[in-house]
Amino acid sequence: MSSFEKKFDHLKMSLRDIQSATKHFADENIVGQDGFGNQYKGQLLLSSGQLIDILARRLDRRYGQGTKEFQTEIMMLASLKHPNLVSIVGFCDEKIIINKYEAKGSLAQYLSDPVTWTQRLQICIGIGRALSYIHYDKKTQF
């Protein structure tokens, strides 16, 4: 078992659970795309019995990402805990990362709705705090 597997084993999920949550990666559950590939919305039943909304990001090698980028993404998401950053729920060996689904979507989607200047200022402050956390408070090597 590699050091990566040992450190992040607690985040591993079964492909079967992810397929069930996303209705086998049904096209109607696609909510976006990023540098990883398609993003699928779903509902996942946790071992605690809690049902949560998730975003399953399935690696598509056509986008130029591979195992190294997949593992780096997991390491970053697992180590960064901030209210203005997306949270990781888990991953599976089939190169799928599970994040907590944010109902407002991406920042670009959120800003496409009518937003007041006060809301825009609050968003900018939140982004600034998240960036400060990543680059100064957390002392990461990302």
UniProtKB/TrEMBL annotation:
Q: Does the keyword Transferase apply?
A: yes
Keyword terms of this UniProt record? Lectin, Receptor, Transferase
Q: Which GO terms describe its molecular function?
A: ATP binding; carbohydrate binding; transmembrane receptor protein tyrosine kinase activity
Protein kinase domain location is: 25-142
Q: Does the keyword Nucleotide-binding apply?
A: no
Its domain of life reads Eukaryota
Q: What is this protein called?
A: Putative concanavalin A-like lectin/glucanase domain, Ephrin receptor type-A /type-B
Organism whose genome encodes this protein:
Helianthus annuus (Common sunflower)
